[in-house]
Write a structure and sequence with these properties.
It contains twelve helices and nine strands. α4 links the parallel β3 and β4. It is elongated and about 65 Å long.
């Protein structure tokens, strides 16, 4: 099958199947072979690896992954792309295509197909669903080595940033709790067909063996983080007291902040991951 990492071959396959991209799935196909090679290289794919690809599209990245990996499991939500994938991947016997919504897939069962060994995830994610997918992968606690993803550049900035910046938020803290984020490549909008309205960035998230902070209850930590950023203009104590589901009073929040040596009027966007970890542990003690 012809290499899809260029405009001509991608156009021909789309024309052959009279396929029209759907905005709801964020379908933009990469047409730059250099970027494709860079992603596979950054993901450090070897023939020993099992790769989970999310959103293979017409199979462009899948072809490159199949050449490098021992096995590729590609999960595609759009049924209209399955006949195209059967065509473009017909020469590879190490690729399995699943027509599923990745957010509804049993990720632990999927990982079990690799005998419990860590899986490497590679994805060109639709911008609107980037955060839910990344969080689902981490929170599933499936054995993961790394996640190498193409995301909107501003999302990549959020993954890396620290306290006190406008991009800092729940995604920053979640990514930095589970993994080390590194920018791999900048990808201009001109590298896609159809061309999106924004540039993209490839990020590699290398999973930590153990999170960098000690937390009594991981789920409660993230509930506290989400509550802290839901109302950014409010003080942290007010934000926590107003949040449903975590059962924290303003008095408990203020007491915990005082115990940590922080002002009662501090805002969530100024706290580090270490401070959020300490705060969640303090609040749990107060609740109990």
């Amino acid at each position: 099958m012809a290499d899809l990492g260029n405009f001509t071959n991608t156009s021909e396959i789309l024309k052959k199947y009279q396929f029209r991209t759907q905005k709801k799935y964020g379908q933009n196909f990469l047409i730059d072979a250099n970027i494709l090679r860079k992603i596979v290289e950054a993901a450090q794919i070897t023939e020993e690896d099992c790769v989970l690809e999310i959103g293979p599209g017409i199979g462009t990245m899948t072809q490159y992954l199949a050449e490098a990996a021992g096995r590729v499991i590609a999960v595609e939500i759009d049924r209209g792309l399955i006949p195209i994938l059967e065509d473009t991947l017909s020469s590879y016997n190490n690729v399995t295509v699943l027509c599923e919504d990745i957010l509804k897939v049993d990720l632990l069962a999927l990982a079990g197909e690799n005998g419990g060994r860590p899986i490497k995830v590679v994805a060109n994610l639709p911008y609107y669903i980037t955060t839910p997918i990344i969080m689902a992968l981490f929170e599933s606690h499936m054995p993961l080595a790394s996640i190498t993803v193409m995301v909107q550049s501003e999302v990549a900035a959020r993954m890396q940033t620290g306290p006190g910046t406008k991009d800092y938020g729940a995604l920053s803290l979640a990514v930095q709790y589970y993994a080390k984020p590194e920018i791999v490549a900048r990808v201009p909008a001109s590298c896609f067909l159809p061309r999106p309205g924004v540039d993209s960035t490839v990020v590699r998230l290398t999973k930590y063996g153990k999170p960098p902070v000690d937390v009594t209850d991981e789920a409660f930590l993230f509930a506290v983080i989400r509550a802290s950023f839901n109302q950014r203009r409010k003080t942290l104590a007010n934000g926590l007291a107003n949040a449903g589901g975590i059962g924290v009073t303003r008095a408990q929040a203020e007491a915990a902040l005082e115990e940590m040596g922080l002002s009662k009027t501090v805002r969530g966007e100024t706290l580090t991951l270490e401070q959020f970890s300490e705060l969640s542990n303090c609040l749990l003690r107060a609740k109990r």
